[in-house]
Every structure is written in structure tokens, then in C-alpha cells.
Amino acid sequence: TQLLEQSPQFLSIQEGENLTVYCNSSSVFSSLQWYRQEPGEGPVLLVTVVTGGEVKKLKRLTFQFGDARKDSSLHITAAQPGDTGLYLCAGAETSGSRLTFGEGTQLTVNP
Amino acid sequence: DTAVSQTPKYLVTQMGNDKSIKCEQNLGHDTMYWYKQDSKKFLKIMFSYNNKELIINETVPNRFSPKSPDKAHLNLHINSLELGDSAVYFCASSQVRGGSPLHFGNGTRLTVT
Fold first, then answer.
1. Are A104 and B42 an interchain contact pair (Cβ–Cβ within 8 Å)?
2. What is the distance between the alpha carbons of residues B64 and A37, in angstroms, rounded to a whole number?
3. Rounded mean pLDDT, B55-74
4. Are the Cβ atoms of A101 and B42 closer than 8 angstroms?
5. Residues with Cβ < 8 Å from B30, sequence gap 6 or more?
6. Contacting residues of A for B43, CB less than 8 Å apart
7. Of B17, B68, B89, B102, which has the fewest Cβ atoms less than 10 A away?
8. Do B90 and A42 touch (CB under 8 A)?
9. pLDDT interval class at B96 (50, 70, 90)
10. What are the residues facing B53 on neighbouring strands?
11. Which residues on adjacent β-strands are paired with residue A21?
12. What is the signed CA dihedral for B66, B67, B73, B75, rounded to 10 degrees?
């Protein structure tokens, strides 16, 4: 099983600040997905990145897949309280057998 | 018209009991999963079924037994519950097997006392 390390584990910021969450591995993934989970609910897919170097934007969220397809980042601009939640990255193993999840980043945006 | 629904939402039971969690998806997906999320929020795969066939069976105690009567349903039966089984269990589905994006249910919080 390929491993994914996510950082930081916890992040508490004020509304309006910017932040970046990182997802790193020593292994290559065929694609990488980002999910957000809110309390009492299951994770919900935000985006999938497939190509090395790919950048995708979802309103104030920017997702990047590393050139070597070993790492990814999520950048949030001007964070809002509604962005509060657990952010999970998940890599699709090159063997094609499964997704491996990172440990998650618990983001709290204070008004 | 919930896509992936699992019941019950909460399950409180005593050690040694047997319990089941049910899951159904109406997305027409081929593959279904059970994940366990521990107190540190780490999501770990337990089982995966593709068209009713078991394709992933992680190192899970054999007290846990999945059953897939058809490709829209994947249930999880747990025998002789232990304190360490307390966690949130998520059912998920994906269009195809492998690294396809997952659609999760809202979880079942199991508490063993």
C-alpha cells in the first residue's frame, strides 16, 4: 500500500486569511482526489487531478498535482467560516487496486 | 433520493453482541466499499465488492463479514463486538473499481460499551 502524508493536521485561522494544505508521498499515484468532510456526514469529492503539473480551480480553492505525481496541494484564498471541515487527499495507486487516504487536515475558519 | 444510504446512523451496543449495518446505493455503480474512520479521523478501507464479488479484503478480524446480495447493496455484519470496534463506519460506492472517485454514505457511529 502506498502512503500519503498530509500536513498540517490541524489549522485554525481567521476569516479572510489564505492557507495551503499539503499531501505528500514518495510513491507515484495515477490520480489524486481531494474530499471535504463535515461533522456527521461522509466525505464529499471536491476535485480529481490526473496529469502531473495540473492545476484546477474551484471558486476560491486551487488544487495542484505535482509534476512527478507524488504530491498535491490545496490552496484556499480568503477563507470563510463555511470552509471549515476535514480535508482529505486520496491517491489512486498505480496498481489500480484502490485509493489511499491521507490522515486529513482539520480546518477551522473563525469569523 | 439519497445516493448512498446506510442505516442505522447510530448504533450503541454492549461487548459480545452481534450487529449489522446496511448500505444501499442508487447510482448504478459497480463497486461498493466499507471504510472505518477512527477517532483520529483516519479512513481505512476494510472491504470492496465489484458486482457482488469480493475484490479487497484488508487485514480485518474475521468477526467482520460483508455480504453483497446484489450490486446495489453491501451490508456489514459484526460478531462478538469489542470495545476497539467503536468507530464511524462509512459505506461508499464508485462507478468502477480501482481509483475511481467515491460517493460516501453519511456514516454509522458504532459505540461498544
1. yes
2. 25
3. 91
4. yes
5. B50, B51, B71, B94, B95, B96, B97
6. 43, 88, 101, 104
7. B17
8. yes
9. confident
10. B50
11. A74
12. -50
The number of helix segments (H) and strand segments (E) in chain B equals: 0, 11
Q: Assign A21 to helix, strand or coil.
A: strand
Q: What percent of chain B has pLDDT over 70?
A: 99
What is the rounded CA–CA span in Å between residue A63 and residue A6?
14
**Three-class DSSP category at A82:** helix
Q: Are A32 and A21 in contact (CB under 8 A)?
A: no
Return the C-alpha cell found at B64: 467482520
Render each residue's pLDDT in chain A as its tens digit; 111 residues: 668 999 999 999 999 999 999 999 999 999 999 999 999 999 999 999 999 999 999 999 999 999 999 999 999 999 999 999 999 999 998 877 789 999 999 999 999
Least confident of A24-33, A101-110, B45-54, B82-91: B45-54
Specify the pLDDT at position B11.
98
Using DSSP's 3-state secondary structure scheme, residue A109 falls into strand
Query: A63 forms bridges with which residues in the sheet?
Result: A56, A74
Q: Which helix (H) or strand (E) holds B55?
A: strand B53-57
Evaluate the omega torsion of the peptide bond into residue A81 and state whether it is cis, within 30 degrees of 0. Answer: no
